[in-house]
Automatic annotation (TrEMBL), chain C:
This is Spermidine/putrescine ABC transporter permease. The keyword Iron does not apply. The keyword Flavoprotein does not apply. Belongs to the binding-protein-dependent transport system permease family. It is a multi-pass membrane protein. PROSITE patterns: ABC_TM1. It is found in: Cell inner membrane; Cell membrane. Its main location: membrane. It comes from Peribacillus simplex.
């Protein structure tokens, strides 16, 4: 049973659609992240859930009640901002107590709740300080504590880690996941960082141009992207737009400009009907051209066009009769620019997308 | 929804200014274009510009404003340059000393000059004491007195404006000019002056327009010497000539707007940053 | 080079002597013991300071000025704070026009503005002199209030408003609990700058005198026209103290940068 639902939502700004016929259901207790490039509508979706902006069309249902017109301050959702948005004139204690005071909690109650939440975010002893005296990571913990202490029905994160440095980002996302699971709080998390989203989410929604391209658990998305956009976004850099696809028992036959390829049929992607093959640079194989000249299965003749040293591996751009491919290869054997080679597509590494 | 808040927030201020400023000003301007019968007419202005007395006043005022502006630039520019090159703390003190007179009552400031340049004032006593003159000089209640008072009034303004602009001229730029073989004087004339032009223009507008419309200083230091602002006041209050006063007021607005728009256009053209 | 710098330093010194010397001279004359204002004074006394408090019209005018400046300030705040907030918070069509509109009272010559007020606010609108004085001063204070508060809102992080709302605060509640406390130094600076502007104003007030009504600077003008004794010097010293005190406060609140920005 979904805790809340966005139904046929449309949002337009300056006559430009940011979301169109947008639908999303989120279950209780789950951490769902919205991932996508800037301008894809992820932040708009989050702000819509929070109530900071109103949809032009559509409905927002929360626990099956119509929440579309409920103002922000009556929703009881916690929001964690990218720039923390702490109140500079209030101490850490007062920052966190802000929501509780509005809820007319008793003084002793407030004290207890604030201390408790400070312990959850590992900031005990900081209550008398002011926001300016804290580091970025500490500020974000306060922001999380401030959102948590009101016991929100939903917790919303807007790129909360983007202002922190790389090491701290990893620590904080572990922390966020821990707190979210401990409290079992339904959470929507917006980010443009793929690794961040995949590492903490129960489900990831990949967004593009105001729609959700795919909504699944991270492992499924990683392995079985459904659309070209998703595949591209998560690192399948090579695409082949096949002319013909023929499904057989256990395998799929594909043709492109006279070259044919065979794929093992993976039961996980049995319902895919796409004709675009996608494969990661790491999964392609290169070998030296042998003298026989015989074309083997799933192989293409090619020539190294560009070779880039990446540190642990080499990256090659290989020119073939059906287009350029990007290939990553351990540095042990290296190929010269201009060298003729054979490119092989392993039978079980390519996915077919729409 | 957002729109509604916006209007709600802006409306009180806009209404207030419209009722208590825009309408009175527009009415003042409007009435000058009608004669008593009610028809449109610019006769008032024609009469006006044929009146030698008024032309005299207008020219005196323009002359006084022009001199004030030139003297302010000549005194203010080098001083501003010196201040802009000072270290942070010293610069702050100098700026506070510059701003202090700016925020002091113009009555106080004009009055102080009455004490200095009056018949028995400091200057005359000093000069007579040294035997340089026999009779006290008549400075007070002349256009010269007005110019002195106005320079004193507006000099801080041009210094503050120029320091603001000069601070933004990067030291690296000056070093670069020197490294290319420019002498100090060349740096000053080829780099600092051109880059200060926008500030100079803005400062000059402020001083010229300010001098053209100033009331307190000419009222105290000018004696019987009228300038346009005291002429306006005299017509409005002493002579009860509201039609004449309205015409003078309109001319003052027109000159102010004209000067500001000319100088603005000039500033845009001269701005080396384009 | 050293030579030239020394020349420039001397020049600057003379410029400042010209700027501050006159103020110093009247300060000294305020301690004159005799009846006639002269420099340097011959005897030392505080009698002219006492005289300020013995001249009834000064006390009345001082009270009028304080009331008009404070009252006008309050009204200008009520009108200006919401406007400054709207202009900083929202982007909308015609924003620059509205901005220019609110600054326009500075561009119109004060002596013209005063005349228009006399003719229409006192004349046509039939407002009593006292009320007209109050309205006129509000008009000239409004641009300063809006400018200073806008500049303190310009680096205000409006996401803390959303934070407060998400925690349950209403729009109005958010303004009072989160926005206002964070711009209070800007507001205080605005009040002081506007107060000085209004308190020292001559151009508007000079038109608005009536039986028993006149502002302090106008009373000073009238006094100077009739008497030439050190009372005005003594008043000048007191006014300069007030100015210095206000400057000190504003400098503390906004930093020197406020004064150098134009």
């Amino acid at each position: 049973m979904a805790l809340f639902t966005l139904q046929d939502i449309s949002v337009a700004y300056n006559k430009q659609n940011i979301l169109k016929d947008f639908n999303l259901e989120i279950e209780k207790g789950k951490l769902v992240s919205l991932l996508g490039p800037s301008g894809c509508g992820k932040t708009t979706t989050l702000r819509l859930i929070a109530g900071f902006l109103q949809a032009n069309e559509g409905k927002f249902l929360f626990k099956e009640k119509d929440y579309t017109k409920v103002p922000v301050n009556k929703r009881n959702f916690g929001f964690v901002f990218q720039n923390y948005a702490l109140f500079p004139h209030l101490s850490i204690f007062d920052n966190i107590a802000f929501g509780l005071r509005l809820r007319k909690n008793a003084k002793s109650e407030i004290e207890k709740k604030v201390m408790n939440v400070l312990e959850i975010v590992n900031l005990k002893g900081f209550e008398k300080r002011y926001p300016q005296e804290l580091s970025g990571g500490q500020k974000q913990r306060v922001a999380i504590a401030r959102a948590l202490v009101i016991e929100p029905d939903i917790l919303l994160f807007d790129e909360p880690l983007s202002n922190l440095d790389a090491n701290l980002r990893v620590n904080m996302r572990v922390e966020i996941r821990r707190i979210q699971q401990e409290l079992g709080i339904t959470t929507v998390y917006v980010s443009h960082d793929q690794e961040e989203c995949f590492s903490i989410s129960d489900q990831v929604a990949i967004m593009n141009k105001g729609i959700i391209e795919q909504l699944s658990d991270p492992a499924t998305i990683y392995k079985y992207p459904e659309t070209k956009f998703v595949a591209d976004f998560i690192g399948f850099k090579n695409f082949i737009d096949f002319d013909k696809r023929t499904d057989h028992d256990g395998k799929i036959e594909l043709n492109k400009s006279g070259y044919s390829f065979v794929l093992h049929k993976d039961p996980q992607m049995s319902n895919s009907t796409g004709k675009i093959g996608a494969i990661r640079p790491d999964d392609l194989l290169i070998r030296e051209k042998d003298n026989t000249g015989a074309v083997q299965e799933n192989s293409l003749p090619g020539r190294v066009k560009v070779s880039t040293y990446l540190g642990r591996s080499y990256q090659y751009v290989v020119e073939t009769p059906i287009g350029d491919f990007t290939v990553n290869k351990e540095m042990a054997e290296s190929y010269r620019t201009g060298q003729e080679i054979i490119l092989e597509i392993p039978k079980n590494q390519m996915v077919l997308v729409d | 929804m957002k729109k509604r808040y916006l209007y709600l927030l802006l409306l009180p201020g806009v209404l207030f200014l419209t009722i208590f400023m825009i309408i009175p000003i527009l009415m003042t301007i409007g009435t000058t274009f009608f004669h008593e019968g009610g028809g449109f007419s610019i006769q008032g202005y024609l009469d006006f510009f044929q009146d030698r007395y008024f032309i005299e006043i207008l020219l005196t005022t323009l002359r006084v404003s022009l001199f004030t502006t030139i003297i302010c630039i000549l005194l203010g520019f080098p001083a501003a340059y010196y201040i802009s090159k000072l270290k942070q703390r010293k610069k702050a003190i100098m700026l506070l000393l510059t701003i202090f007179p700016l925020l002091t009552s113009p009555v106080v400031r004009s009055f102080s000059w009455m004490v200095i340049i009056g018949k028995n004032g400091v200057v005359n006593k000093l000069l007579m004491g040294m035997g340089l003159i026999e009779k006290p000089l008549d400075i007070l209640y002349t256009p010269t007195a007005i110019i002195i008072g106005l320079v004193h009034l507006f000099l801080p303004l041009i210094i503050v404006t120029l320091v603001g602009v000069m601070e933004n001229i990067e030291t690296d730029l000056l070093k670069a000019a020197e490294s290319l073989g420019a002498s100090r004087l060349a740096v000053f004339s080829k780099v600092i002056i051109p880059l200060s032009v926008p500030g100079l223009v803005i400062g000059s507008i402020l001083v010229f327009v300010g001098s053209f419309t100033a009331y307190t200083t000419p009222a105290l230091l000018g004696g019987k010497q009228r300038v346009i602002s005291t002429f306006l006041y005299q017509n409005a209050i002493t002579l009860n000539e509201w039609q004449v006063a309205s015409i003078v007021a309109t001319i003052m607005i027109a000159v102010t707007v004209l000067i500001i728009s000319i100088m603005n256009g000039l500033a845009k053209k001269l701005n080396p940053k384009g | 080079m050293q030579e030239k710098n020394r020349g420039l330093a001397l020049f600057t010194f003379l410029v400042f002597l010209f700027l501050l010397g006159p103020l110093l001279i009247i300060s000294v004359t305020s301690f004159e013991g005799g009846n006639i204002l002269k420099f340097p004074p011959e005897e030392f006394s505080f009698r002219w300071y006492e005289n300020i408090f013995n001249v009834d019209m000064f006390l009345v005018a001082f009270k009028t000025s304080i009331l008009v400046s404070l009252g006008g300030n309050l009204l200008a705040l009520l009108l200006g704070v919401p406007a400054a907030y709207a202009l900083s918070r929202f982007d909308f069509k015609g924003k620059s026009v509205i901005n220019a509109f609110f600054v326009s009272p500075i561009l119109i010559p004060g002596i013209v503005l005063g005349f228009a007020f006399l003719r229409y606010i006192v004349g046509t609108y039939q407002l009593p002199i006292y009320a007209a004085l109050f309205v006129g001063h509000t008009v000239i204070m409004l641009p300063f209030i809006i400018r200073v508060i806008s500049s303190s809102l310009s680096n205000f992080d409006f996401s803390i408003e959303e934070a407060a709302e998400s925690l349950g605060a209403s729009k109005l509640g958010t303004f009072f609990t989160v926005v206002l406390p964070n711009i209070k130094s800007g507001i205080l600076a605005a009040v002081m700058i506007a107060f000085l502007e209004s308190f020292n104003n001559v151009d508007i007030s000079v038109y608005m005198t009536g039986p028993g009504v006149s502002t302090f600077p106008i009373q000073m003008l009238t006094y100077v026209e009739n008497y030439f004794d050190p009372t005005i010097s003594a008043i000048s010293v007191l006014l300069m103290f007030i100015t210095a005190f206000f400057m000190f406060i504003v400098e503390r609140l906004m930093g020197l940068s406020y004064f150098t920005k134009r």
